[in-house]
Amino acid sequence: MKTIISAAVIAAALAAPVASFAQSNQPVTRAQVRAELVQLEKAGYNPVGDHVDYPANLQAAQTRVNAANGTAQASAQVADSGYGAPIAGSSQAGRAVTTDRSSVYFGN
After folding, report:
1. Which CB contacts under 8 angstroms, 24+ apart, belong to 73-82?
2. Is the Cα torsion angle 72, 77, 82, 88 positive or negative in sign?
3. Is residue 9 packed enough to be buried (19+ CB in 10 Å), middle (13-18) or exposed (0-12)?
4. Cα(36)–Cα(51) distance, integer angstroms
5. Is 58:45 a contact under the CB 8 Å cutoff?
6. pLDDT digit string (tens) for 31-88?
7. Which residues fall within 8 angstroms of residue 47, CB to CB, at 6 or more apart?
8. Are 10 and 2 in contact (CB under 8 A)?
9. Residue from 69, 63, 61, 66 nearest 42 by CA
10. How many CB atoms lie within 10 A of CB 108?
11. Does the pTM exceed 0.70?
């Protein structure tokens, strides 16, 4: 029984450093953000311009930047819209609601 516990402790001790290396996400620097903004502005996006078509203008500029960089957009425009995937289903109209004559509230 002690060998099983010691084997589990050793396995956990060896697995802990692997999990710490998996989390190597570093925050984006100001220079990277400014470089991306310059790319978007060169693609035709105006951050202080018309805000009526804000998401569409930004997504169109991002698509042009991705095409210029040679990177394909991994997801469709629907995934970026915030509305989710289209729902495939149907609905049926029922008949009119009828009241039961033996209802407790009949006549009130």
Report:
1. 80/55, 81/55
2. negative
3. exposed
4. 19
5. yes
6. 999 999 999 999 988 888 777 888 888 899 999 998 888 765 444 444 555 666 666 6
7. 37, 40, 41
8. no
9. 61
10. 5
11. no
The pLDDT value given to residue 76: 45
pLDDT tens track for 54-63? 888 889 999 9
Distance CA 23, CA 67 (A): 30
Nearest to 41 by CA among 69, 71, 14, 61: 61
Alpha helices in 1-108 (DSSP H): 2-22, 30-42, 54-69, 77-81
**CB distance 81 to 55 below 8 Å:** yes
